[in-house]
## 1
Amino acid sequence: MFDHQVESQSGSRAASRQGRLCSRIRAGVIAAALAVHGGAVLASPKSMAAYEDAIRRHEAEDHAAAIIQLKNALKEDPKMLAAHVLLGRSLFKSGQLKAAEAAFQEALKLGVAREEVVLDLGRIYLLTGEARRTLELVPAVAPTPTAQAEALTVRAMAYSQLGDQAEALRAVAAARAAAPSAVNPLLLESQLRLRQGEIEAARAAAQRATDLAPNDAAAWVATAQVQQQSGDAKSALATLDRALGLNPRHAEGRVNRAGLRMAAGLDAQALEDLNALKAASVNDPRAAYFRGVLATRKGDVAQAKTAFQEAVAAVASMPQAVNSADDQMLMIGALSAKALGNREQAREYAAGIVNRNPRHLSAQLLLAELLVEAKDFRRARPMLLALRDAMPKNPRVLSLLGSTELALKNYGPATELLEQAVKLDGSSSHLRELGSSQLGAGKDAQGLATLEKAFAAKPPDIMAGIQLAMIHARRGNGPKALATAEAVLKQDPENLALHNFLANIKGRLGDKAGARKIWEAALAKDPAFRHIVINLSWLDIEQQRFDEARARLLQHLARQADDPDVLFQLGTLEHRARRLDEAERHWQRGYTTQRKDMRPGMALIDLWLEQQLPDKALPVAKAMREAFPAHHAPLLAVARVSQAKGDMPAARSALTEATRVAGADPETQVTIGRIQLSIGEVGGAAYNVVKALQASPDDLGALALQVEVEARRGDQPAVDAALKTLVAKHPTAVPTMVARGSVALARGNLAGAVADFQSAMNAAPSTPMAILLSRAMVGAGQTAKAAQMLEAWARKQPGDKVALMALGEVQAGAGQVEAARASYAKLMAMDPDNPTVLSRYALMLHRINDPGALAAAEKAHQKAPSRPENADLLGWILARKGNVDAALPLLRDARLRQPESGEIRFHLAYALAKSGRTEEARTELKAALEAGGLQAAQSPEVAKLRADLGVR
């Protein structure tokens, strides 16, 4: 077996990295085996023989055999404390962390001194991501200097895992002071310094370790890591040769040497290291990734895919807290995910490294590359500018920055950067990017010629050919696009991915039948070709051939169970087919079987919010927030769900955090700002408008939101100025029509509002737009017309509960009581237990004085008792009926859950006044009037209560 040492983080690797520490105290364990029995019954010869054999096997790294013998010893003597302790350590080194913890806990129960196993337990908690528990358990003070140094080193690892590098270094310094000759604190310090880019400090720590322990392989591995980080690969290789000469089983040394050998083109020698690791059952993600790279170089796609999947699985199996603390493992996860085509997962890993360690240049470069691939150029650009300053002669940095400037239409800087990249490295990929820049700068002939040159290179740059075909397709030059795509396919006619590309070109040019023919022919050769299965199924969904797509996707799932992309697509299919239960089932499965792709979880949240089921959505939104801490989308989901539940403080908190996470992305800032505005956070919305416009001064969404923010502030000159800017820059855009209509509606220009909203509805029909138009119509006295319009829209959207609910409300307002009842009857039939539907139905009945309102409100509250609006409605109906004693608890509960609601506080004030609690009623009424949002603020009912209570 191999000796796993130094900063490896998966269970089996990281557990056995402590082997050296454990071996140093094995003499104490042997002594303990005798001492703990000294005052009691002596151990049986059989149990001692098994224990002694276990010690030998433990020292030989044969932990499986050691565990068997220790269990044999404990079968003979269940109270043999030393066997419990050694069992825990053998289980620990074999990666069985929970079993190891149980063994140590049993030892404690039987009387082993706490300090005997506290470090072992602390290391277990580190590996399971419970660093805070490690800090709580492992004291900073120990009986001996050596023990104290070990304890402080473990605490330093815990601080590092929690991201507190300063405290980690302080703990390491204290460990060195406690035991100046201890090696482990020096090894950890070297790693910590390297992570922070402090190469010379890391070198000094590693040098001191080799001085103290010249025969310790781990010390030389640490030295090699410093040399490698310094760019001295030749010295690093020589140092690793020395380390592995001292200990051929040192896994960290083997992995590092394999990587360096690969970088030097010594693939055969690298494979020797990787095979040795595999033979020793070392489950290291880095080794799996290296095997994938070597297989890719050989053209063995299947073997490469398997290796990259192994790497991703190994990284994913690590506890999140551990995973997020290990830059190297996150980097391997990112590179492997990228190789598999999972860009989102790769970005998540790379962002985790950069957020934790902003000086990690390799991670920054990878993240920047992924952001460029995702077309998130505004986030990529500042990162690439900083990388150019740090690595001015790096052609990849120059090429990516040039591509970014190109995407942002800064053609001059783009061309200059890409020309520099081509001079440093005249690869076809850089030529391809230069051609794109020239095209963007309007130098069409030059740009196409450069792309043609890249495509004609030896070997041909297939990506350049693909780009040429796409350019011709976009420009409407169908024959040239098809000819180029066919030429690309001729470079590798057996490559089904290129068949897929040709089909995509045909589909882009409108030849759906031709695309379908190619996809079907490709699937006849390989029915399991995933991308073609998905593309052909999207075409089926677009053409509403749901049965064919469903059958194909289900057949793929039978081959590749729980494929998240396919599950997501199946959910989308069923949602389009309005089979919502099936959509939920597929998305739920896609969500529960993995935590790397957020789409199924987000789709579930959207589905439940669409169905007015925020209580069901909240646990998923919170879980998504934990699973994707560096992404704004789950935070927005938490905010939307909290808003739907009426929990405004939680919504505000999530939006504030989302603002921080989103950075300067205009689209995201606008989204956040809109949600903030909807919950009354005008200041937060204004801040996000400023951030969005700083990043993109002409952004349509930001300019439209600016109008709404100024309108909410009541600053009419500012509204006019913002609207003028919006109309000038985007005169015919739908958001411009909506903003202008909203301003008109707010100013009482109802005819203008109706006209603008109608134009927007004609240009981009949707349920929200229909509802907005209906409100303007109602305000203009066109209630019957509004009901007619909504009825026509709802007929086109038979499963749209939001449209049907809006129709019922407008019908009730128009006096069309029976029509309103019919609309709500349809809603109730579609979803009889939906608390929102029940609540809105009860409110409608209450407004038309129907006695059935009480029963509906009771059922709504029963289904969702934590929703303040449900408790408020039931309490209000009861109070109006004179049942104040039953109303008050409900209204108090609603008021405590949503104290900012003027409507709820008015209802409570009304009930309090009816019950004779005048002072409390007066306080609540004042608060209601100050809170705003009191729809009936000028109603006779409010006026009477104000007069009765003396509130002005």
## 2
Amino acid sequence: MTHDNWHTLEVEKVLEILNTNKAGLSEKEVNNMLIEYGSNELKEKKPTPLWKMFLRQFESFLIIILIVATIISALIGEVTDAIVILIIVVLNALLGFIQEYRAEKAMKALKKMVTPVALVVRDGKQMEILARDLVPGDIIIIEAGDRIPADARLFEVTSLQVDETILTGESTPVTKSIHTISGDNAQLGDRKNMLYMGTNATYGRGKAVVVNTGMRTEIGKIAELIQVEKEEKTPLQLNLEQVGKQLGIILLLISAIIFVIGALRGIEILQMFLTAVSLAVAAIPEGLPAVVTITLAIGLKRMAKRNAIIRKLPAVETLGCSTVICSDKTGTLTRNEMTVQRIYVNNREIFVSGEGYIPVGEFYFNNEIVDPRKDKDLELILKIGALCNHAALEKKESNYRIIGDPTEGTLLVVAAKAGILRDEVRKKYPRIGEIPFDSETKYMVTFHSTPENEKIAYIKGAPDVVLDMCSYIYENNSERTLTDNDIKNILDMNRNMADDALRILIMAYKKIPDVREFTHDAIKNNLVFVGLVGMIDSPREDAKLAIQLCRSAGIRPVMITGDHKLTAMAVAKDMGLIKEKSDSQALTGPELDNMSDEDLEKVVDNISIYARTSSEHKIRIVRALKKRGHVVAMTGDGVNDAPAIKSSDIGIAMGITGTDVTKEASDMILIDDNFASIVSAVEEGRSIYDNIRKSIKYLLSCNVGEVLTIFIAMITNLPLPLLPIQILWMNLVTDGLPALALGVDPAEPDVMKRPPRDSRERILSKKMLLNFGFIGMVMCIATLLIFAYNLSQNSQDITKARTMAFSVIVMSQLFYVFSCRSERYPLRKIGIFSNKYLIIAVISSIILQVAPVNIPVLQPAFGTTSIGIYDWIVIILISLTAFIFSEIVKIRK
């Protein structure tokens, strides 16, 4: 009994297919249907056991290497080293575990969208049941304020309006009808005879027959997409995994070769084994994951201060290399608050200032302020909007909100800007009758008594309908006959407003002599046209600036919305997303349906606007962009955005208007729903990646220098220049604080003026490997020269030679760290003291290095001897070579 196009069928056919009628199902039929279709609830996949989810975090090659390093460190007595490595391993496992576990929370949040109870008709009787017990064929009753409990086909409506924002992204409630909708490919927002689970009725009432329940509903399909869509590893994770594999294999092989060479030379087997193992432990940068994690965590704190909450640490870096930001329109680029911008009255186009629901603004004609209290034509149209209205404007502390239909609410706001308040004007003009808005008539009428004891009808509705009912026009505070020229002017203005994506309402009135005639017949002709009101979901001013900043950073913003194409294009042009309205820059959902994935990939780089889209469309767009090599950030707030958010490289949810489902599926949440905060996050992400590269460059260059020192000493027949304990101490002193201090380095001046980094770029590029080799060789030569020189002066005093070599290689690394602060700029340009944490870290490390050399009680354990001031001066001068060579290379660039 599956069917995807219920909206195309007549009600009688739907009832026939579902084997039901308007009196509802019997109890027996319900029980049979429950057995066949199951409960009306969102099913979850069988969850992975927590213990298995945790153990799965240890499958990474780098993690395995770290575990081996832990065991080796413990075996050779380096318990402190072993504990540090173990903490890092567990920390990384916990982070991965938390990321997987949150998928379950996303499903739980989605299940909250299902209504707990539903009003149904069964066996001809109205009753309230648990929503989970609904089945296809049930007759449900919907009233204003209800959350829709299942997907259903309407067969009876009374001014029913439904807010479908969470599914379609449209900012205004949809007026429902019972008529069939042609076209199998009609988008959800166009299926006005359908109701969908999780949406909300805002006005009127209706009856419908349930057609789909549980996972077969539209929201159920989204739930399925969330579960099916796999989270891919970020570029940083992939790069670090590659680093781990390459580095682990190379260094373990070199350590093994060193052991073999030393053994063949006749050096004591145990000493060579300890040396090789110590070198392997020191060379494998077990501090790298900690540096990356801490750098990301620091970036997270910085971003939180800039209104961006990161839920997944690697996403900080991913955002930094984003090339496309796919943004929803409603609530993200716009305020999700309808605002009256233009009023056509008395043959004038009046502009209204102010944003959102705040009742503050001015009225302008020809750039001069108009006082509505002194302009009777303008005052009348505002008064009609306030009286022919069911909404309320409520102030809570300093915030304003609309209770009821947003379109009606914005009429109250614009009236309040003129000092016309709903409650006050209703006292002067009490309502005595009403004709509710209906999708058939496309207008609403309220009847009032005037202070002069007259009866008057105020009408608002669709211009194309109400204008045909008008015979007169209100102009200069009086009525006159409506002429053909008047009609032409009105239609021209209506067209101009529509071209600018404004939603337009016409306002009219008619004096009613007979109080009993509160019917359609009473107002079907001889109305007095007053004017047009044009409103729009206002663009965010800060979002306009954010779009410009994105472009300067080489990032392409793309709008994906459920609204109509013309509306989307008008908003996009206003925000600077596109320069001119052009169909070549926009695609609609139906057009996407007629395109293959291959065809979409060919044009996706040229499209800036996608309108009337569904969840599946958004995922296709994200996938097409990713196949074109883009790193895609996807913003959203509704449930319909969740699957695409999860499938993107980084999903961004709105903190204020975002649903729980979207937040749980996201990588980042904007606290203030401000598109501009994304730009701040991009800057932070780029800076963080730069800092991670700096730390990797520093750590690996130093490790290469250590390995080369031992390796070349072995093949040149020199004694061991460093003892195992010295190697491990060097690892502790140089790989800790300085590397972490690089993680908080300030951003470089051009961080937001360069194009996004290629996400496929490897951290261990050929260029960086050459740099490692060059700097490592400089450190190696400096260390072996001082070692060989001291041996030549006194071949019997190998302890002093090792002490000098030990000090040179450590000090070389501590000086070199300053050059690692930038790959392009010399230290003098970025400022020696601009990173105070690095200064503190280096001074601390120098003190730690001096201790085992000059404190007699530590010398036996470290195999060192005291050295004088002259020796330290020589050590410092030689140790500066790595820093100097690195700075010279930058100058040559």
## 3
Amino acid sequence: MKKLYLIHLLLISAAIQGLSQSNISLSNPEAQQILSGNYDPAGYAPSTVINHPDSILYGIVSQVSKDTLISYLMKIDSYFNRNTGSDTVSETRGIGAVRRWIYRKFGEYSQQNENRLITSYLDFDISVCGQTHHRNVLAILPGLDTSNKEIMVLEGHFDTRCQGACDTACYTPGMEDNGSGTVLVMELARIMSRYAFSHTILFACVTGEDQGLYGSKALSTYLKNNDIPIRAVFNNDVIGGIICGNTSSPPGCPGLNAIDSTHVRIFSYSPYNDSSQMSAHKQLARYIRLHQEERINPLLETPMMIDIIIYEDRIGRSGDHIPFRQKGYTAIRFTSRNEHGNGSGTPPDRQHTSDDILGLDLNVPPDGIIDTFFVDPGYLRRNIIMNGVNLGLLAIAPPIPSPEFTMAGDTVIITLHDADTVYRHYRVGIRSKYSGTLYFDSVLTFTNTTTIRIPVVVSGVRRLISVANVENTVESLFSQEYAILPVGIDESPLNNLTIRIMQNYPNPFSVRTEITVEVSENIDFRNVILSVTDITGRILKRIPVHIVGGKNRFSISREGLEGGIYLVSLIVSGRVVANGKISVQE
């Protein structure tokens, strides 16, 4: 079945690849001026400015409404088919009707908030499923300070589909994929337009995701071509479901009908061969996790945990954050821990079928009750809060610092220069590359100084350190990480080696598998660890091994590993020198 599905995808891709969007333009000229930062902020300031971090935090936590979310999802469902190539004329059915409804709702939010929310379509031309003209729906909240023209982008795609990529006759409720992301964007546009932010926020409902990310490609192209800087892009896709499907794409879903309403995954890019997961995208994910733990969870009845995922997206899948990353923007994807399908439209999984409905009984309280609400409003509400608080804090945050790192014995000295010295308040995130963790091991706070000294050397451990400016209790994004090597370890023998972890056999395995490490030179390493981590970076196995030049074979047992995909790392004297993947059968 999966081979047939792959062939089907290739045929679809062949039919629409080679095309690119043209005639990309905004329907509202005012929107262009605001996105470019060419406007008078006083003309868009509210009569009462509400922008204190606590006001934003408590306001978003208290104002996200489960009832509103349910009503929006039911309204979206009523349009029957939201395929990118569906009807654009009808007022009650098809892609045109739903985008006009979203546009009207954005207009209503603006009227309720002194007309501060500027609405526009982003038009573009490309042939997709018989339609050649398409429209993203945008709402823009102008920032109060145009001296730094970076904007924030929140997006979710509003199109959906059945198993057939261009089936415009089927019933496509698309409640999980991606009605959940659509109403997330709408609800935050409604709430956040009450507040004032230093930076402009762009709320975007995009189309054409299910045929090739066309809406996000058009939007990212428009912003790049017009030299509009972006501080961060939050993409939300499949963000309200709590039930695991049979074919759910790895990593993350433990098995059919498993329920999880307390975790969410953040996918983001880092270079394939960068075992330390050092990238601006991963730093953005760490920033969000830090705020979830420190600011948001204490206010929630049900705390949420963020799983920072090694990969940019689910294996074999893609999302609307990727075109932005490809344009050089910092971008991440929020997705539920559990996903009901792999996009193939294979029953009984609901994704890309007519069964991707809101729920079977809309009168029963949803949280944790299987077969009642498939898109859980309580879980979706918590994910909306997560997005909104971090979006709002970043929109009032200071810029990323440019620290200078130097070593003095066993101490790292961090010096802040120029504009960064005005804050005299900084947070330092510390990670251990040795542990393979994707999260900050610790975050330290320093005030009334512009020079920071941190003792960092622990035998056999390599540290990664980054710095954030702090203004009015709000952190900037953390700087690029600085790698600190432990004193006394000579890494020069590693620099000229090629070390590879070969594919294990059998793969996937049920009891035990054999993995081969190939070393290019005749060398003897005895202080070596073979580390097995899950997708969140949590260490599950640390196996001491001895490697020499040539092929080295080691055995790994299933004990302590559930079904899924794991990262295997080879660590020599505290340095990760090679990575591989293994799969454990369900």
## 4
Amino acid sequence: MTTLETAYAEIQKLVQRFKSLPAAERKGMNENATRQGYILPLFRALGWNVDNVNEVSPEEKVSRGWVDFSFRIGGIPRFFLETKKASEDLNDPRWVQQAIDYAWTKSVTWALLSDFEGLRVFNAEWKETDPFRAQFLDFNLESYLTNFERLWWFSREETLAGRLEREADKVGKRIKRLPVSQHLFDDLKLWRSELYQSLRGYNPLYSPAQIDEAVLRLLNRLIFIRTAEDRDVEPMRLMPLLRELEDRRQLDKLSEKLAELFCQFDATYNSELFAPHFSEELYCDRLPLEALIRGLYEKNFVRYNFNALEADVLGTAYEQYLGHVVTEVQSETGLLAAASHVDEKRLKRKSQGIYYTPAFVTRYIVQQTVSHWLDEHGYNPSTPPRILDMACGSGSFLIEAFDTLDRFVATQRHQAYGEDDTLHDNLRRLELLNQCIFGVDKDKQAVDVARLNLMLRALHGRQKMPLLENIYHADSLRPETWQQAFPAIMNPSTGSAGGFDVIIGNPPYVRIQTLDKSEVEYFNQNFVTATGNYDIYVLFVEQALRLLKSGGVIGFILPNKFMQTDYGKGLRKLLSEKKAVWKIVDFGDAQVFENATTYTCLLFLRKAANERIVYGLAEPIIRQGSVSQLNDNELHTFEVDASRFSADPWTLTGTGQNTVMDKLLAGNPLMSDIASRMFQGIRTSANEIYVLDVIKEDGGILELQSKSLGKRVSLERNLLKPFLRGEDIKAYSITKPTRYVLIPYSTEGGKAELIPSSTFKREFPLCWKYLLENRTVLEDREDGKMKHENWYAFVYPKNLDQFGQPKLITPDIASRSSFSLDEDGNYTFVSGYGIVLNSSIPYDLRYVLALLNSRALDFYLKKISSRLQQGFYRYFSQYIAHLPIRRIDFANPAEKSAHDEIVKMVEEMLGLQKQHQQAEAAKEDVRFSLQKRIEALDKEIDVRVYRLYGLTEEEIRIVEGAG
């Protein structure tokens, strides 16, 4: 084991041996001898396994500007090292810039440069025009030992602990360079706007959509060419062309000459990307083209290396591109766009459900599906695996799948035939792209980008490129798509089962309320998972199962809500009946997507009868901070029997928790069995008018503040009800309301009726006058649909007849059970639910209140409810309905006594809570004493409830340990 002491001793020996070399021998030592004899042994002494290519990985020398080694932990680069021969001049800015640019392009913070006589450390994230100003540390033969404490920061142990990053933060808040993905997107955004404006201005007969298509085609072509240059597949083509035209003073012909270059690339690569396209007919001013070409090399002291760009970097930049649209600013005449700018189109993102998947999620899903499939089946070119992404976007999942497949087949063939052969490597990649990779997306721009990204994975020589017709522009939820796009797969002539072997991806998250009615009607008629107010990702899961070959696997990232919500019932039923689930990795309330609050999980399905399901909780890993890799050994996992899954909400818990839940449930009625109604809070449709703040509430006339009128008003108490917000409702207590709601309805015979205007004017003149002052706003509700004689009615007058009854109430979102009692039916509320018991049920409301507020049933609810951020849960009626209420046999004296004792304890609790509220102005010791008694009584009630359900000491520990 490497320790600080052993490392010091080893490095001391290295330094002494190097110093003892004759000057001539030291000067004549080449780079490899320096590297193998001294530089790598230095890092070996620091605890790195330099002989393990998975830990210290040599970078391929296939491009100008690539460094020598990446130091990795868990497959993730932590820093890069560029080695030089002894006595090399480390002050040469070429080497420094090369190391920094490479690290930045690879999204890695640290770049190291060493000839062993010196070791220089640069922070590639610091925004410096002079690369030497990005230097963080500098060692030489003497300071390796005199400054050994800092050298130890580069040990494997300290690197894993993030020591470098912590120390860098101490030197001050330097301006940080934008991450390469963000920088590239910002450039793409600027180039897109400038190109669009030029093309639109010079080519007015083309539509905005055509102009935007032409811009994307041009950008894709130029990025392909730059990548070919940086991989040494092509000589430098763009800058020489620019300089030649500049020398000849013919830059106005740049657009024309680029079209000629594209024609040459079409002849070489025979790809759809360079095939004749209407964009070549368009004239573009030289200035945006010139700025674009120069920017693809270097801009603002940032150098792009397109060979070193990771797939997820390009994918991230392009995914942001696809989530934006060009907005035109019309000229004064209105005929042409005077200017344009590119803005994020949240409606497009929302309507298409676009969320770019983080690289660690993509890698894990591919590992669990593609890698597992290959491990089980191997690769046979006569029956290649068919891998599909049904909403491929920019192609990130397909790229990761292709890379995984390529590595597997390369290793397989290397073991069979020996050394690699460049020609066969290229042929292999083309074969895999054509035979194994399939994608569909309804966004044409996304399809074009996905094709480009996949082509770039295969671009390693001047050869014909695939047309990639397997990346198809269509709607994945339409059956004709699959027959038209992939008939050989869906109807194989071989007689073998049709379908795909692996389906992966991130289906769109779109609620049906945002869709066209005819589209929703189609979905409702053709998908069994179309239940409730569903999200279309459930349809994608159903469609994927239809398209999957028997024994095939699916890996999706999608919202975890389907496991509990009403709209997930259809999907739960389908998956449980088919026993299709084999693994779930749940992120809980930890956020995976940037700039979006979405509660997600990874759902893995296998088209086979899966009797056991692996459930893993990844939430703690995500909460630790930035995640670069997801490993099974870091997940908190357990197995669940498939028989526990049904159309009912899924409870995914370990064996001990399952036992507790089974005991709580055994033989007891559910809340839905004993409640006559569980209803939502009031919806006025105009809170700023109907809900008013209290100023003075003595007598029959209340003095209130109206937000809509911005003044005080006096209104009759008879039409006003105390109005609670969710946060006003707590366990066993109700905060004194500071608002009232005006309800223009009367409740007679158990039915709420709108008070006629004539009665209103006569009996409640102050309220009527107030409503008249707000008449215009009230009539304009629902786009003017309230312009009729009942203009003062609520748009959605639901449940108004329920509020006047004795009831239990709860906020709809809370961190723990917060049920309270409205014994006299005094309160209305918003953001919550009310519960009215069936009149035939003999249980006292206080008894049910104790159970609902107990830790036992709160434990149960949190296992079936949706979890939100910061430890909050949904206390919706659909979850409350499934809570088991302990059955009481009132003919049994012991059980009746247990019921009555709990009722008395709750009565005491309600009284204590009222005293505590009224004691705000009392002495601190009085309030403290009340609070201590409330806490003690709460624990006593919990003990009674545990005893009532028959929980053992071990089961109680499970409940209380679950938080």
